[in-house]
Design a protein that fits this description.
alpha+beta, globular, 10-stranded mixed sheet
């Protein structure tokens, strides 16, 4: 008794034989299906191998230690922590009092009898062959077995005494040094010998130097303190090895002393949430929900992309299977003549997809596995960490392989159904028969287009759900795909006005919609996505360009240096820039300095930087305060804007007191410079130059000028007292220096300058200044090599110098638009080429007839080119129309959201009518021209070039 599997076994044998006979077509389809399988399987292997187990992560974090103990910086106040030690909070209610701060001596909390190692990380500027490099310095006895897993030795050995260091391979690569080289630290006279190289498996791209505890950071801190330079803070942890491990109860006991713990035993076997005090706090929101939702969303997006890619492959491969079915129609007819029914014919054609899909699954998965193995070092370098192990998950790879099989079978589905409906006599005689067009599919497609467009417009204009725009656009695009056969028929109406060859090509495409429609749909899908992304990108770029505000005149170069102890390097940096670039005018900039001259400006906002650092504030006269922001000291918790109505807030927003500056400029509230700065910035104002020379402060806005025409600058030397006063909504204590001011008016552009004074005026008032940077006007824009040489010269002096060249708005999306056009072009040419191959197979008899009646050989080439061009043109036109809809919908949604935020800002008095958002919709015409004109013409020319002028000799058919 014959069962269903016998017929399928025979069908598979026939399909395997046909695939072997038509190697070119089979390899083409196999490559199309296998290529994404290679990528997906390689991505799965890379992702899984990059994921670390809890044991592997602990080995990289704490080596063989049982725990890491870290000061919680609460001054010994008890804390509550999560089991992994990453989240913690001080015990108590601190809504009405300052949060506890301070250090704790962790060594006094260490359990008795435990073995410990100190792990301290700081930063230092190290001399290299290229200049200075700001790198991590890690003081840890790396040769101790307790550290195994944290650092992997790649050459030499770890340090054994205080004069030796080891360095990461990444640092050696960037510094130009090697094992055996001498290393020096800025501000230290001592020299260190590099005795080994290592890598951090968890962070391969880290510039780090390892030394024994106390070898570098302590001497560096002492040297910086001696020079009056604030030292950067170091972070310390203690690796603990304790018999029996570190239990959760021990962790809570340690927390009670203000120290947090990362325990190996607790992380591997965490307690119940009910046993974690931190999770019992009502105000505590346990993390992870947002991260998990984002991960789920990312997986969903990736899944959609993969499904769309496979759908595109089905549309591309479908016509190729149709070619095979058409060429095998006599064989299929014989099957029917010998008792086979439609099921058997469908099985034979579907088996073709099954055979090629299975082959693509095996080859694609194997190639993905081999490529991941071969490229493992490169992949690890790219992701920046070593794999824990090569993690192969058979079930996931099997699922990926089944995708290939499903893709092959799905691509062969339509040709299978079409072939099974062919009459046996028509298949045996080679006649095509006549089939009526499907009238249901166009109706479904039209309904989907109308419904999808309505949903997309509703999402863009009335709803806050942006997914409605995407979902509606996708539904509309699927509707257009369903309408493709009918739309192809509409294109045929223009055939009467075309010359012979394009008319024949269009007639052939319209008459054989079964092979034309899938190819057009494949082109449509690719072009629609390209047009949608390109339109949205071009519109967003136009928005960014409109928002762009130049910080300086075009071609100006700005140099700035604001770091602890960096002021002494500024003169050399100025000379280096002037030496390396085509400078016309150089204008030196200084900044006001309060307290220690070696302090950076931001050190004055950090009470931990030392009492020698200070800061200044420009006094805002009471009469110039914006009523919307003027806080009542007696009511510190009250919002001053709440007492005004929406209309009053909108009116106050027009008040000059409530308008701020729109550019960053030099980044200083008070810039110290001379008339050269005005010249570089193009500010031609003789009155301003005279006022500056007379010792006045130039005020480019009237916010800080009081009724007496003066500007006040408060010098704050006690940072802690100032911070306390600010917390109580009071004025910071400090001496106020008053300067006569000159209002600079009539200038259209002040380039972000707020206040400007001369160094002489500051000195006369007893205010110190330190070098900050310079502005340079150029004879021309610096070339790329000139900029590289300048950066190399600056690196020899400092690693923190900032250089900005005003080049105007520069587009970063040109390469994106070009890539999209190339992608769509390749898909278009591929789909059109497949359709052309199928049409040539169908039209061979017509071509022979044309040759018999005297048509020249070039007609074959011309007809082939126009057939390819017709498919490409129809797909590109329909795809362009389909792609514009989602882009417009998304931009309308962006515009509505921006207007909503703007209206709320208007109601609160934060914005004015001049701040109205600009959300344009811009068509990417270069991309559209390339798609609508260049791609179809290129596809037609390519098809014509690869087509032979003369066909193969025909064999006389048996009667």
């Amino acid at each position: 008794m014959k069962t269903w599997h016998h017929s399928w076994r025979a069908a598979i044998r026939i399909a395997r034989r046909d695939a072997w006979r038509s190697k070119g077509r089979s390899l083409l389809v196999l490559a199309m299906i296998a290529l994404p399988i290679v990528g997906v399987s390689a991505a799965d292997l890379t992702f899984r191998s990059h994921q670390l187990s809890a044991e592997q992560q602990l080995e990289r974090d704490m080596g063989r230690a049982d725990a890491r103990m870290i000061d919680a910086n609460t001054g010994g106040v008890p804390i509550m922590q999560s089991p992994d030690g990453q989240m913690y909070s001080a015990v108590g209610d601190y809504d009405d009092k300052p949060y506890p701060e301070g250090t704790t001596d962790v060594t006094k909390v260490l359990p008795a009898g435990a073995k410990t190692l100190t792990d301290t990380v700081g930063r230092a500027k190290l001399h290299t062959q290229h200049g200075l490099l700001n790198a991590e310095v890690r003081e840890l006895k790396a040769s101790d077995p307790l550290v195994d897993g944290i650092m992997s030795l790649t050459g030499g050995r770890f340090p054994k005494d205080s004069g030796e260091v080891a360095a990461t391979d990444y640092f050696l690569k960037n510094s130009g040094l090697k094992v055996g080289s001498e290393l020096t630290v800025r501000h230290l006279e001592r020299r260190y010998t590099i005795v080994g190289s290592y890598e951090l498996p968890q962070a391969l791209k880290t510039d780090q130097v390892n030394a024994l505890p106390g070898a570098v950071l302590a001497p560096l801190g002492a040297a910086l303190e001696k020079s009056g330079i604030p030292a950067s803070g170091n972070e310390s942890a203690h690796l603990v090895k304790f018999s029996g491990g570190f239990t959760w109860n021990m962790v809570k006991e340690t927390n009670a002393k203000g120290v947090r713990v990362e325990s190996r035993a607790v992380i591997l076997d965490p307690p119940q949430d009910s046993a974690v005090p931190l999770y019992q706090e009502q105000s505590w929101e346990r993390g992870g929900g947002r991260g998990e939702s984002m991960e789920t969303a990312a997986i969903a997006v990736i899944g959609v992309v993969v499904v769309l890619a496979l759908l595109e492959i089905c549309l591309l491969a479908g016509p190729a299977f149709a070619v095979g079915a058409r060429r095998s129609r006599r064989q299929l007819g014989l099957v029917g003549a010998n008792g086979g029914d439609r099921r058997h014919i469908r099985a034979i054609v579907l088996s073709g997809g099954l055979v090629i899909g299975a082959a693509a699954a095996v080859i694609g998965t194997a190639l993905g596995l081999l490529l991941t193995l071969a490229l493992r070092p490169m992949l690890e370098e790219y992701v920046g960490s070593r794999f824990g192990h090569f993690d192969v998950r058979p079930l996931e790879l099997l699922g990926i392989a089944l995708l290939a099989v499903a893709t092959g079978v799905t691509a062969a589905l339509v040709p299978a159904v079409t072939s099974s409906r062919q009459p046996v006599l028509a298949s045996l005689t080679g006649r095509r028969g006549v089939r009526k067009s499907n009238r249901v599919l166009p109706v479904i497609g039209l309904v989907a287009v109308v419904l999808g467009a309505s949903i997309a417009l509703y999402g863009a204009l009335a709803s806050d759900e942006i997914l409605l725009v995407g979902g509606g656009s996708a539904l509309a695009e699927l509707g257009i795909v369903a309408l493709t056969p009918a739309l192809v028929g509409l294109f045929g109406r223009i055939g009467g006005v075309l010359p012979l060859s394009p008319r024949l090509a269009l007639r052939d495409a319209v008459r054989n919609r079964g092979r034309t429609a899938p190819a057009v749909a494949a082109v449509l899908a690719a072009v629609a996505g390209t047009v949608a992304v390109a339109t949205y990108t071009a519109s967003a770029e136009a928005e960014q360009k409109a928002r762009y505000t130049a910080q300086m005149p075009h071609g100006t170069v700005a140099l700035s240096m604001d770091e602890s102890g960096g002021a002494r390097d500024v003169p050399a940096l100025r000379d280096a820039v002037q030496k390396m670039l085509p400078v016309d005018v150089r204008a030196d900039l200084d900044r006001l300095s309060v307290g220690n001259a070696n302090c950076a400006s931001y050190d004055g906002y950090d009470s931990g930087s030392g009492s020698k650092c200070g800061r200044y504030e420009v006094v805002l006269p009471k009469a110039n305060e914006c009523p919307l922001w003027a806080q009542d000291p007696s009511r510190p918790d009250e919002d001053p804007a709440e007492k005004y109505t929406k209309e009053q807030k909108r009116k106050l927003a027009q008040d000059w007191r409530c308008k701020g500056t729109d550019t960053y400029g030099t980044g200083l509230d008070v810039t110290v410079g001379d008339e050269k700065l005005l010249k570089v910035l193009g500010i031609e104002n003789p009155a301003a130059e005279k006022a500056l020379a007379d010792g006045k402060v130039l005020a480019f806005s009237r916010h800080h000028v009081d009724a007496d025409g003066e500007v006040g600058i408060r010098l704050i030397t006690d940072i802690e007292a100032a911070d306390k006063a600010m917390a109580e909504n009071k004025q910071a204590p400090g001496e106020i220096k008053s300067f006569p001011a000159h209002r600079v008016t009539g200038e259209k552009q002040s380039w972000g300058l707020k206040l400007m004074m001369s160094a002489a005026a500051a000195k006369a008032a007893g205010v110190d200044t330190v070098p900050y940077g310079a502005y340079f006007s150029m004879d021309r824009l610096p070339s790329g090599p000139e900029q590289q040489r300048m950066e190399g010269e600056l690196a020899k002096t400092s690693s923190e110098a900032g250089v900005q060249i005003e080049k105007g708005y520069t587009s970063e999306n040109d390469i994106v638009l070009l890539s999209l056009a190339i992608f769509a072009g390749l898909i278009t040419i591929g789909a059109a080429g497949i359709a052309t191959g199928l049409s040539q197979a169908d039209a061979e008899a017509d071509l022979k007839t044309l040759a018999a009646v005297g048509a020249p050989p070039r007609v074959r080439r011309t007809l082939s080119g126009f057939q390819c061009g017709v498919v490409a043109t129809m797909g590109v036109v329909l795809g362009t129309v389909a792609g514009v809809l989602p882009a417009i919908g998304l931009r309308l949604a962006d515009r509505r959201e921006a207007m909503r935020v703007f209206q709320e800002s208007l109601d609160e008095g934060y914005s004015t009518a001049a701040d109205a958002p600009f959300i344009p919709i811009v068509m990417p015409w270069p991309t559209l021209v390339a798609l609508l004109i260049a791609v179809p013409i290129g596809a037609a020319l390519l098809a014509a070039l690869v087509t032979r002028s003369r066909g193969a000799l025909a064999r006389r058919e048996a009667a």
